[in-house]
Known about the structure:
FAD/NAD(P)-binding domain; 5-stranded antiparallel β-sheet; single chain; 3 domains
Amino acid sequence: MDAQQVDLVVIGTGPGGEALATGAARAGMRVVAVDKHLVGGECPYYGCVPTKMMVRGGDVVAEVRRAAAVAGEATVAPAWAVVARRIDEEATTGWDDTIAVDRLRDAGVTFHHGVGRLDGPGRVRVEEPDGTTTTYVAERGVLVNPGTHPAAPPVEGLAGTPYWTNRDAVQVTELPATLVVLGGGPIGCELAQVFSRFGVRVTVVQRGARLLPADEPEAAELVAQVFAEEGIRVLTGVEATQVGYAEGVFTIRLDTGEELSADKLLVAAGRIPNLDDLGLETVGLDPTARTIEVDEHLRAAEGLWAIGDVTGKGGFTHVSMYQSAVAQRDILGEPGQPARYHAVPHTTFTDPEVGGVGLTEQQARDAGLRVRTGTTDLASSSRGFTHGPGGHGLIKVVEDADRGVLVGATAVGPTGGEILGFLAVAVHAEVPVDTLRNMMYAYPTFHRAIESAIAELS
């Protein structure tokens, strides 16, 4: 059949791709979108939304257990079935994207559940599950937002076992008695703490020297301390060398010689970009690359834009959404600011939450900046003191001393991700430290500790 003429083809409808396809269609473009999985991508079905329901459940359990110290005796009987029901019914509607597909089509988008591949500049070949193919020629261009999938480390025996990834973990309806988590990054830490709070005996095996390696060491140390208090065993600087599975039990051999046994194994060892089956070679790009290089308007080549995790600018939903807006303006020929990444925020939803923005101290030093840092203990603040148990936390700020502005900050605490909003504005807008030092902070709040951290800059 002859190729069909359209304005724009969007391959991959994660949060950014879905938003851009919708926006372009509403602006009058003839838009085709294609996704082989669920519209909305990882975030609403396997990431942000269901895992935060899990975290909320674990936090409530922990708060009830702390009640005796601040409000009187209270008991809780944790029931995972309540969390599983919320995820199924309220978050994912049974992992069904009908509502999201209808939303796209109502906006005027032609949508295909299938595989979209580049077939030369401005051309996309779409293959439906039944083998039907359609070729589109996009007069304005193509946007790719293919996302990532869970990585599996090359551990002997692992591939032949029924291990969990994050996708499996959010769908469980019954919990195991014991769990080993391979990986101490954000996903591994969040899920380890959640399952532990619902009665699972959890061991975290982290290949690196500490948990949360992308965050400040002080934040990682505090999370490790809390994990120890809650009975989560953490092994750092340790690597799994062999995995076995027999009669419903996993065995994990470590390079220290120790052998762990568990009912379930969760692999949280990072993500791999979905670039190998995208047809990048047909437009002169390397299909074996880890990322797609883009400019400040998200252009990867003439008539080709890329957004999301595959750009290497941060594996977060908010990065994809931010890039989506920048790319949409460029596609529609509208004016607007180019993309900047000097103040990318992120939050790990452990208890305490770990929020970070911009550069860590080490990253700032590696960039050749003359660095000053200030740190304060959140628990020693008035709000932390009155909060009582669970008030662990800290604020750390990183200053470019030559310019007198913050280039990075970390907020750890009961509301670390919310405190981060203040710090993200300061880093993004390059607010002078003198301004931050001389402004008024509400009392008694957690965010007031920022004033103390700035006072400690040295």
